[in-house]
Amino acid sequence: MIFKPKGGKKQLDVRLKDNTIWLRQEQIAELFGTKRPAITKHLQNIFHSNELSEKAVCSILERTASDGKRYKTRYYTLDAIISIGYRVNSKRATDFRIWATNVLRKYLTSGYVLNERKLLKQSSDRLFKMQKTINLVCARAALPALRGMEQELFSIIGDYATSLQLLYQYDEKKLFSKGRKRARYRLTYEESIEIIAKIRAELVRKKEASVLFGSEVGDKFKGALGSITQTFDGYELYHSLEEKAAHLLYLIIKDHPFVDGNKRIGSILFIYYLDKNHALFTKTGERAINDTALTALALLIAVSEPKEKDVMISLIMRIIAWPKN
What we know:
54% of the residues lie in helices and 7% in strands. By secondary structure, it is mainly α.
């Protein structure tokens, strides 16, 4: 909830700690349009009358002052701020009381308060993303490269839609936009080349690939692996296993780092990476994504447009990461 007093244009920089807001006395005075001595007097009365316990709503925290030095300062929680707001005699405090009373009335009569604008925007965004993804899959299903994969594509759409439905039942803090799991295992270039060499030898023996299978095109493959673990200002660009795995599959298939075998190599390394990070199988022992679905997904990535990258990455992440795991 946001309190906006009439004519109020200033913003307060607040501390967020232990799931509450902390303000200094001078900040509370500024909030209610009064002076600090008035705030001190109201706090004394609040504590004296046992309306609130000083130990429960007051904490000494460090802050950096304008002179650059760090000082220990008393901060007060939201409970104290609200109590003061009902005691201060000022126009700003009156506006606050009217606002707070309306909020409380809604809670008492409805049991909750809805941020209708935020909910409407969230619903529209979710519907738009789902519609965009499903339209993309359906449009590509008619292409020759995906002929015969209709059932697999239908399954992918079903998994994607179900994942969104389940994820959106969670509290906003539990929802993931960038994945939920941490990648403990790092796939190296040397290990990948060794895996590709073994696959090539087996496929050549079966006459299912040529010696060009897995031959690198410049440093594209190194670049793809490097982008998955790249950092910015000391932080990983892709934080989660889902993001890393999705980009691994997409980049190998879409950037064509090999002369031949990009879809097969991308799919195999994708599965290998998930397995090494203990994310290939669900708790019931099922594969998070089966071979036929993976084949359809690989073909879908191959025929997608570069501008559709974000949609494809989101699709891969949702399929491998929804709460079935």
